[in-house]
Amino acid sequence: MPPVNRQNVLRANVGSQDAAGVEMHGDQLNVSVATVRELLGQQFPHWADRAITAAPFAGAGNALFRLGDDLVVRLPRHPGSAAAIEVELRWLPLMAAQLPLAIPAPVAAGVPADVFPHRWAVFRWLSGARLDIKTDVDPLDVAARLGQFVAALQGIEIATAPASLRPNPLDGDGSEVRDDIRILGADRIVDVTLATAVWESAVVTPPCRRPVWIHGDLFPMNLLADRGRLSAVIDFDLMGAGDPAIDMLPAWAVLTAETRPLFRAASGVDDDTWIRGRGYALSAGLGAIRKYGTTGRPQAVAGRHALTQTVADYQHRT
User: Fold this and answer.
1) Global pTM value
2) In angstroms, what CA-CA distances link 222 with 45, 173, 285?
């Protein structure tokens, strides 16, 4: 499966909102409780009478609806996310026992219908609050557990793994990153000289020699905490074989100078992977701010954190 364009992943134009308040783009489907009710009635009638409510953290890729207290219905909004469901249905059950944090567990697979054109699925509901809104979480626990999760994921056999939709953290010629730096530098959001140095330090490192399983999108919105500790990782849309540097993203998008060493030690990556990961975190932070601005939206907050942390980390190490 070919990689998606970085612009499509990080900088889609903001459009209208669906019934759950999620931003919609031109190629995305608007779905509702009525859509879910009809699909269940047709394909899983034993669940059709359950309470259905829009989940509070649906994203641009998928519409999520709570189904009673213990299930969640996921409907992909575009073909890319529909293809990802096929990968998740096959691989997530095999991975669950090998990972130290909870991950989505599929319990039923729906098929396309007149009311909805893509494959869809029902998963177990994972309790916990997203890390971007959970404030009473032990940061040392997050760093250590997340590093252990990444190491365990990378250790899973990859022989038949599909390629991730985001396999390369430094994809392309870098012109988009440099444009972002120039534009955001003009707005005094980023230091042009330092941000450019962070990016260039990543570009000159040797490329990945051995792809591994990656999650592909370890932003705080995809990490759940329960009772003060990191408990689960969600949203595996980009899972597949790729450069382990991709999953170094939370070192700068989530963690700080005090907790980053714990994450790195637990993940066990080499120096080149770490530096490529820092460059990718800068790139992702720039893209998030270009899309969401300097608002209080979780993506914008994570983007600003990534920019601040990557630049500060570069300064400290040079």
Assistant:
1) 0.88
2) 30, 28, 16
In whole angstroms, what separates CA 282 from the centre of its chain?
15
Hey, what long-range contacts does 232-236 have (CB within 8 A, 24 or more apart)?
A: 232/101, 232/102, 232/103, 232/126, 232/128, 233/99, 233/101, 233/102, 233/103, 233/149, 234/103, 234/104, 234/126, 235/59, 235/61, 235/62, 236/84, 236/87, 236/88, 236/92, 236/103, 236/104
208 φ, ψ (degrees, to nearest 5): -60, 130
The tens-digit pLDDT sequence of the chain (318 residues) is 333 332 232 222 222 333 333 444 445 678 899 999 999 999 999 999 999 999 876 567 889 999 999 999 999 998 888 889 999 999 999 999 999 999 999 999 999 999 999 999 999 999 999 999 877 899 999 999 999 999 999 999 998 999 999 999 998 889 999 999 999 999 999 999 999 999 999 999 999 999 999 999 999 999 999 999 999 999 999 999 999 999 999 999 999 999 999 999 999 999 999 999 999 999 999 999 998 988 889 999 999 999 999 999 999 887
- Type and span of the H or E element at 213: strand 212-214
